[in-house]
Amino acid sequence: MTVRVLFFAYLRERCGVREAAIDLPEGATVSDLWSRLLSRFDKLPAEPPRFAVNRLYVDKAHPLHDNDELALIPPVSGG
Amino acid sequence: MTVRVLFFAYLRERCGVREAAIDLPEGATVSDLWSRLLSRFDKLPAEPPRFAVNRLYVDKAHPLHDNDELALIPPVSGG
Amino acid sequence: MKSAYKVTEISIDTEALLAFVGDPAAGGATLFVGTTRNENEGRVVERLEYEAYEAMAVEEMRRIGDEIAHRWGIVAVSMVHRVGVVPVGQVSVAVAVSAAHREEAFAACRFGIDTLKATVPIWKKEYYEGGEHWVGPCHAHGAAGRG
Amino acid sequence: MKSAYKVTEISIDTEALLAFVGDPAAGGATLFVGTTRNENEGRVVERLEYEAYEAMAVEEMRRIGDEIAHRWGIVAVSMVHRVGVVPVGQVSVAVAVSAAHREEAFAACRFGIDTLKATVPIWKKEYYEGGEHWVGPCHAHGAAGRG
Asked: Which residues of chain A are within 8 Å of residue D116 when distances are taken between CB atoms?
């Protein structure tokens, strides 16, 4: 399956990318995806940000599905 | 001395007057003025309203002076 | 501290109020507007009519503003009350406060409207289906006179 | 309950927001606006620039609005956040809530802005004299990468 990953704010600037398509084996979780991202983007910090899948906050155990949209959410600072 | 008395809202409507000039002996207090008003306006309720002298809330013991402006302040309901 | 207080017979311009309290030193502003509701205690309200002891009302608003400035670090405050007829849905009162941070803006605005309603000499007459009356905490207007 | 949520690249029209939440059943409305301050933690701020995960930001605002409606009896709620450059003194965010009574309007508006700041995926970059940085609770943007 393929998951679309979105980068925002300082993560977008550090990694130099707005989005990436990542292939994963069936049954992969957010945690698995994060490991994959760490190996691909060496500017990512070791400490994970918050994650949102299809525009909802989820935890790292959340199972992923084909065509999911996963966003890396650094600490928000709207207002 | 003479004190100018202002009537508002339901007191103005009941007494049918917006203001009145009341003569008082030197040394008179708000309490004395209220007694005078009660004898002159029989539509005034026995229970006194709040009083303001020269646009400041005062208690009944407040001494009056010539040309003071005393307002009868029924329960306020702005907002 | 910037401040402005007014009693007005025309519509309250909330945009002007927000512009007045706006300031480069302010991180936020809280505005409260009171509007005429179409219902009160089960009665269908047609309109409200406000009467003010205008000179004292403005002075009392200023005292509230000074108290706000004393209690909280604020940037600007403004209070406006309308008098005369206020149709359903229209604004009768507005309180705006700006401050460096929102905590102060909220607390000061809330204190402002609460205190205004308790102390500023303004009276509301409610015109409802089938009657009218002066609104008061104790419905004192309904008390019998002595005469 | 009426509600409206938006992310916008142009100036926030607070008058339109107040008009939207206005309703004959509302006794009042509370509006909070966040504005760009000329100073932050001792730095002279020149402007802010906001970035949003727009689709989720609007959904998250809606979730906050639904939570507000669940907790308080309100008449209407609206939230708008601006993205792109917001010069000093201008409005970056606005939350408006109307309700039958002011207690609800204040509590719901305060909850709205507090929760928006904690959960809505929007990021602020501060441009100050001598530099720029992404604003975050832990200044995580300054953390070293692994590579």
From this structure: 78-79
Chains B and A touch (3+ CB pairs under 8 A): no
Tokens describing residue B42? 């029989």
Nearest-angstrom CA–CA distance, D61 and D29: 18
**Closest Cβ opposite residue B9 in set C116, C118, C134:** C134
Query: For D32, which DSSP code?
Result: E
C2 Cβ partners below 8 Å, 6+ apart?
Answer: C20, C21, C23, C75, C76, C77
Neighbours of D142 (CB within 10 A): 10
| ipTM score of complex | 0.93
Instruction: Tell me whether residues B78 and C123 touch, CB distance under 8 A.
Output: yes
Give strand pairing partners of D44: D39
Q: Is the CB of B42 less than 8 angstroms away from the CB of C145?
A: yes
Helix, strand, or coil (residue D130)? coil
- Residue A60 and residue A57: Cα distance in Å, rounded? 10
Handedness of CA C12, C15, C18, C21 (dihedral sign): negative
Count of beta carbons in the 10 Å neighbourhood of residue D12: 20
Q: Tell whether C111 lies on the interface with B, counting CB pairs under 8 A.
A: no
Nearest residue of chain C to residue D34 (CA atoms): C28
Q: Cβ(D82)–Cβ(D13) under 8 Å?
A: no
Predicted model pTM: 0.94
E-assigned strands of chain C?
A: 2-8, 28-35, 39-40, 43-52, 74-82, 84-87, 91-99, 122-128, 131-134
DSSP state of D135: -
pLDDT tens readout for residues C43-80: 999 999 999 999 999 999 999 999 999 999 999 999 99
